Amino acid sequence: LNKEFYDTAFNADETRMIRKQNDDHVRLLSVDQMKEYLTSEAERVATPTEFASSIQNPLKNGRCWWWLLNEKEGVLAPSIDGLGGYHASVDAVTKKTNGVRPCVIVELDD
Question: Measured at the alpha carbon of residue 102, what is the angle toward residues 97 and 104, in degrees to the nearest 5?
Answer without folding.
Answer: 175
